[in-house]
Design a protein that fits this description.
Bound molecules: NADP nicotinamide-adenine-dinucleotide phosphate
Strand order of the largest sheet: 3-2-1-4-5-6-11
Distance between the termini: 39 Å
Largest sheet: 7 strands, parallel
CATH class: Alpha Beta
Number of helices: 11
Shape: globular
Structural class: alpha/beta
Radius of gyration: 19 Å
CATH topology: Rossmann fold
Strand content: 15-25%
CATH superfamily: NAD(P)-binding Rossmann-like Domain
CATH architecture: 3-Layer(aba) Sandwich
Helix content: 40-55%
Number of strands: 13
Length: 287
């Protein structure tokens, strides 16, 4: 198959690029809005450009790693978030090829106390969540064969993310307050990329919505302690704080654990614990 990967300069897109070398069965085209090594320019909101790319390279499958991911900025720049997270999914879904799309735990309210299943009611609380949910719906309307994978708390050795920020702050500061009343599962983007290759290479195509994160749960506070321990940071005292002390400009889900049973059962895989993913990522960051 010829496979188009969008947003490949981002965390997940870069991990797809790295792992594609271990998965030579198919041919991959890596694209993003900004040019980089081995990256073609492709804006997913540009229908003409997407159709031309799909036709020219005889694409059989699109893996959409592109998104507007800045949750706070999306509140002020709703129009752009709608274009990239929602309307572009109509563009990708209408190409007459299969699509694997990545969505988010932010489609849920985060008020529950048990892991969310794919069939649970959605109730996004942010512009980001609303636009991502609209994207899911627009995609399925155009391409009922699509696979949608919702994930959460993504980090990688590529790009900017919580892990890198906590390592930097841990080296700069003697004290750090981190929220302990938001619970979720950190997800190493390399493990999510591996899950996407599992979907691509499965002998049977299983359309639908799936949840995928690493295993286990923690708070951002626990996550920070683990990051510092693995990065050998000993001089920064990490203090648990409440979300209200941090004063987020955009609401954050208090409990956003995803139930991954459907993915594990359908694709017959086991998923690494978040500590395992974090250990591999911090090792790569070489701190
Ligand atoms: N990060 C998280 O914690 C998290 C949590 C849950 C779900 N997700 C979902 O997981 C997926 C991957 O996230 P990520 O963290 O890898 O995102 P990311 O690092 O922000 O990467 C997204 C990439 O898409 C590019 N892009 C933006 N607009 C585009 C357009 N119109 N056409 C083509 N490319 C465009 C971005 O370029 P610029 O940087 O130049 O804009 C960036 O390179 C997304 O669907 C996201 O919603 C992420």
């Amino acid at each position: 198959m010829n496979i188009l990967v969008t947003g490949s300069n981002g965390q997940l897109g870069n991990e797809m690029r790295v792992l594609s070398k271990k998965h030579p069965k198919h041919h991959y085209f890596f694209t993003d809005v900004v040019e980089a090594d081995d990256t073609h320019i492709l804006n997913i909101t540009d229908k003409k450009a997407v159709s031309a790319f799909v036709a020219e390279h005889e694409i059989d499958l699109i893996v959409n790693c592109a998104a507007y991911t800045n949750v706070d900025k999306a509140e002020e720049d709703e129009a752009t978030a709608i274009k990239i997270n929602a309307e572009a999914l109509s563009v990708l879904g209408s190409q007459g090829v299969k699509v694997i799309h990545v969505s988010t735990d932010y489609v849920f309210s985060g008020d529950e106390h048990v892991p969310c299943r794919e069939t649970d009611p959605v109730a996004p609380r942010t512009v980001y969540g609303v636009t991502k949910l609209r994207g899911e719906k627009l995609l399925v309307a155009e391409c009922p064969e699509a696979v949608i994978i919702r994930t959460a708390w993504l980090y990688s050795s590529f790009g900017n993310n919580f892990v890198k920020t906590m390592i930097r702050l841990g080296k700069e500061k003697e004290q750090l307050g981190v929220v302990f009343d938001q619970i979720g599962t950190p997800t190493y983007a390399a493990d999510l990329a591996e899950a996407i290759f599992t979907v691509i290479e499965a002998s049977v195509w299983h359309p639908g919505i799936y949840h995928f994160t690493n295993e286990g749960v923690c708070s951002w506070y626990d996550f920070t302690l683990a990051i510092h321990e693995l990065a050998g940071i000993t001089k920064c005292q990490v203090r648990p704080i409440l979300s209200e002390e941090y004063q987020y400009s955009t609401p954050r889900p208090h409990y956003s654990v995803l139930d991954k049973s459907k993915f594990k059962k359908t694709f017959g895989v086991t998923i690494p614990h978040w500590m395992d993913g974090l250990r591999r990522c911090v090792k790569l960051l070489n701190c």
